[in-house]
Amino acid sequence: MSDDFNMSMRKFLKQVGVTSQQAIEEGLRNAGDTAGKEYTAKMTLTIDGLDVNHVVTGTIKGQ
Questions:
Q1: Which residue of 25, 41, 45, 46 pairs with 54 in a disulfide if CB–CB is 3.0 to 4.6 A?
Q2: Coil, strand or helix at 5
Q3: Are 34 and 63 a contacting pair, CB within 8 Å?
Q4: Which pTM was predicted?
Q5: How far is CA 15 from CA 30, 45, 51, in A?
Q6: What CA–CA distance (Å, rounded) separates 43 from 16?
Q7: How many Cα atoms are found within 13 Å in the side-chain-facing hemisphere of 25?
Q8: What is the pLDDT of residues 15-62, one digit of tens each?
Q9: Residue 52 neighbours by CB under 8 Å, 6+ apart
Q10: By residue range, what is the domain housing residue 49?
Q11: Please, what is the Cα angle at 38 between 10 and 36, to 5 degrees?
Q12: Per the structure, how many domains does the chain have?
């Protein structure tokens, strides 16, 4: 893969990671008391023009 491809992918994934963490933290703050609670999270990646539909699920523990 080319350097341009690698850089654009890294930039996209960094943006996804940073903005997703911010959204999760805001959601937990807005929920109030989340201590001891667990939340199921799902992230779906689709790419226009490509046959890509990738789903990642996991658990996030409240604080």
A1: 45
A2: helix
A3: yes
A4: 0.85
A5: 22, 13, 22
A6: 10
A7: 6
A8: 999 999 999 999 999 999 999 999 999 999 999 999 999 999 999 999
A9: 45, 46
A10: 3-61
A11: 125
A12: 1
